[in-house]
Amino acid sequence: MNAPSSFLDFPTHLADQRAPHIVIFGAGHGSTYPGMDTIGYASAAAAIRAASKAGAQDAENWDFDLGGPLFHGWPGCCVDWGDVQTKMHDNAANRSGIEAKTRAVLASPAVPVLIGGDCSVTFPFLAGFKDYGPVWVLQIDAHIDWRDEIAGERYGSSSPMRRASEMPHVAGMVQVGLRGVGSARTTDVEDALRYGSRFVTSRDIHADGVEGALQHIPEGARVVVTLDCDSIDPGYMPGVMARTPGGLTYLQVIDLIARLGRRAKIAGFDLVEYYPPADIDGISAIVAARIVTNVIGSIVRQG
Predict the structure, then answer these.
(1) Mean pLDDT of 78-103
(2) Total domain count, the chain
């Protein structure tokens, strides 16, 4: 029987004991900064799952975003394992739980899809690939997230890409959708460029399309995609903490993911920084659910 709160009404396991191809799970909290209240993120995964319900009965119909049915002739390939139990400010335990869940998915073996949570859930998600590298990281975000620490916390939402750069199993990094101001001090930018990160601004995507971003990723590489919802223009995605004009469109995001799936191999995906208290009429949850659906379709099509 399908779980009542699962994404697209996916089951929690496959009845015939086959290994799933894709496993979805949620995480409400990662590493919260001292004195900060991040409780609003705890409901993100549930809101995205609820928004997916409208398309659940049509999941095997023709999907014009994907150019065919979602499962591409491979029904029953996805399961939803529910949420990692996390608690605000219980940072070390949260990281441990998310990393362990990611490792369990990869060992099953399947492609993990995490719906979070703020950007701090990305660090333990990437850490879970330690024995499954090398991987490239494609970050889709308004910000580069290269702060070393804030208030003594080195694993918070402004630091995941710096921490990723320190992981031996991360082979390279492309950061797409950058604009405005935020997490990047001049020294952070210099450190990221010194590491070898490739910057692709939102303006670059609007002017030249997504191919300029993908050319930095080696063909056939295994890629973990982390999508921060504030990479998307607030006209499409108002439910974020850091609304910044000039962001990517929904079509640019799904085109980037689809083309990545044809050039390389999507080894994992997380969607973070959806903040339900800031949403308007559930618009952002709908967009987030459609992006996750497109990710599933792209992963299925890469075999």
Answers:
(1) 97
(2) 1
